[in-house]
Amino acid sequence: MSTESPPTAPAPVEVASIFGGVATPGDAVSINPEAGWHPVTEDPREREAGVRATDRSLERFPYLAWRFGERGRRFCESDSAWMATLAGDARHAARQLTWLAGVLGARGMPSLCLETHARHLHAELVLAVASRETAYDAILSAADALRASRDAVMPGDALAAIARDFTQRAGDAAPAESRGFGEILAAAVADERSGIPNAVESVLAWAADASRFDARWIDAVLTTVEAARAS
């Protein structure tokens, strides 16, 4: 079956929102009742691409599901449907993703996560609707802008070295869900350098919580952040 078969738009059924009122399929609350009223794509192919991109991003960074659970998945899917509406305008897409990176970075999701997700979303959108590849390239360009901003304060090889050091420090204290967490810590420090408020503190509030983790894990987390800040 062709991935570019004519789309069937979501039925215009009113959807209840936790904010009160109702939403049409063009509102984010039609996907996620907590997401608000910003516009999202109504093309089911693009929505499904967002779901697949979410799966890929949660696989790439297990921390996201580990910490934020199903609520985090719902926001990732509604954000993906919103990001699809940025296609076609690279400058606007870059501004919007930079803004979102600041919002998410202050809540414990470093901009590296958003950049990675934007790349996954671009790939899935192109597979779903190949005729719009040029328009979707605006999302890829926005991801490149996020990477350039991070590389300016922490080059990729430095980030990778910090991540490896964390893995060695944590050793067998690291649970299976922590794969890639060293990158999360390094990226949070990079965001801090870029001026995102609470970028590190929002990660540490969870990762250095003694009610969740043992002393060796917490020491590895704090030592890695200190080393990253000093590098």
Structural commentary:
The protein starts with 14 loop residues before the first strand and ends with a helix. The chain has helices at residues 44-60, 62-83, 90-105, 111-128, 133-153, 156-170, 181-193, 201-207, 215-230, and strands at residues 15-16, 22-23. It is an all-alpha fold and 231 residues long. 43% of the residues are buried. The longest helix has 22 residues, at 62-83. It has nine helices and two strands, in the order E-E-H-H-H-H-H-H-H-H-H. Helix 1 crosses helix 4 (111-128) and helix 6 packs antiparallel against helix 9 (215-230). 63% of the residues lie in helices and 2% in strands. The radius of gyration is 19 Å and the shape is globular. Strand 1 (15-16) and strand 2 form a beta hairpin. The protein has a two-stranded antiparallel sheet with strand order 1-2.
Describe, in short, the structure shown.
By secondary structure, this protein is an all-alpha fold. The chain contains 9 helices and 2 strands. Helix 3 packs across helix 5.
Q: How many angstroms does the end-to-end distance come to?
A: 52 Å
* Strand order, sheet with most strands: 1-2
Instruction: Spell out the helices and strands N to C.
Output: EEHHHHHHHHH
Number of helices: 9
Helix content: 55-70%
**What is the C-alpha radius of gyration, as a whole number of Å?**
19 Å
Strand content: under 5%
Quaternary class? single chain
Instruction: Report the biggest beta sheet as strand number plus sense, adding barrel if it closes.
Output: 2 strands, antiparallel
Q: Low-confidence parts lasting 5 or more residues at pLDDT below 50?
A: 8-20
The class by helix and strand makeup works out as: mainly alpha
Q: How many E strands? A: 2
Mean pLDDT: 89
> Shape, please?
globular
